[in-house]
Specification:
Blueprint (H helix, E strand, L loop, with lengths): L2 H15 L9 E11 L5 H6 L4 E7 L2 E8 L3 E8 L4 E8 L2 E8 L7 H4 L5 E11 L2 E9 L5 E7 L19 E9 L2 E11 L6 H4 L9 E2 L2 H8 L4
Parallel strand pairs: 6-12
Antiparallel strand pairs: 1-2, 1-11, 2-3, 3-4, 4-5, 5-6, 7-8, 8-9, 9-10, 10-11
């Protein structure tokens, strides 16, 4: 697998399979994203990740996350916690592709439903991000990789189908740091709006837009391995 496809595949699967909390129950949150690496072979990929952002909208058990990976890819995930429906749209180096799934229909899917074993440590450390008091959590996965979450319990949003909203952390992530495929990524909230602006029907639509090809998760993985 070439390194660019490996990065795209890893980020895509992580975004989909990682599976918010008075409280603000409707809103729009914007993140800035910073990336770095010690691997010389990944410097070009890091350059292409510059300018990455993420926008999250949530309302009434519906969540929409728009993840712009620099010039490499834009990925949008729309989820309905009540019905279990998830729509993932990917546009970029691998074309315009869409994946539709439902947690009830894919209960036997080992990729989408296997919950990884993680160790969670909740600390007493706190800091304020965009006016919200946050607590620190350390999550260690089966491979020993440690991710750091700063979460607030003042915001509530549906987590199902949204990878970075870890159900192992009791709150909404205002900042988190993770390492994937030798790349360090830090995502920090820069704006919180307490209402969803625009047309909610369009924002949380599960219709596949014109120009997108529907595919399965297995097909997406095969595309990621195209450089083998």
């Amino acid at each position: 697998m070439n390194i660019m496809n490996k990065i795209l595949l890893t980020l895509s699967l992580s975004f989909l399979s990682f599976a918010f909390f008075a409280q603000l129950k409707e809103g729009h949150v914007a993140y800035k994203i910073e990336t770095s690496t010690d691997n010389p072979d990944m410097q070009m990929a890091i350059g292409m990740m510059q300018g990455s952002t993420m926008e999250v909208y949530f309302k009434d058990k519906l969540t929409r996350a728009e993840f712009k990976m620099g010039t490499m890819m834009t990925m949008t995930t729309v989820s309905n916690e009540t019905t279990g429906d998830v729509l993932m749209l990917m546009s970029g180096m691998m074309g315009n592709n869409a994946i539709k799934s439902n947690s009830k229909e894919t209960a036997k899917d080992t990729v989408l439903n296997k919950k990884p074993k993680v160790d969670v440590v909740l600390t007493n450390e706190t800091k304020v991000i965009e006016g919200y008091t946050c607590k620190k959590a350390l999550i260690t996965d089966e491979e020993g990789t440690v991710s750091t979450f700063w979460f607030t319990e003042e915001i509530t949003a549906a987590k199902k189908g949204q990878s970075y909203l870890s159900e192992d952390v009791p709150g909404f992530p205002m900042q988190f740091e993770m390492n994937k495929s030798g790349m360090k990524m830090t995502m920090t909230v820069t704006k919180v709006e307490t209402k969803v602006s625009g047309n909610s029907s369009d924002l949380f639509s599960f219709s596949i837009p014109a120009g997108y090809k529907e595919m399965s998760l297995d097909q997406m993985k095969q595309m990621g391995m195209g450089g083998m």
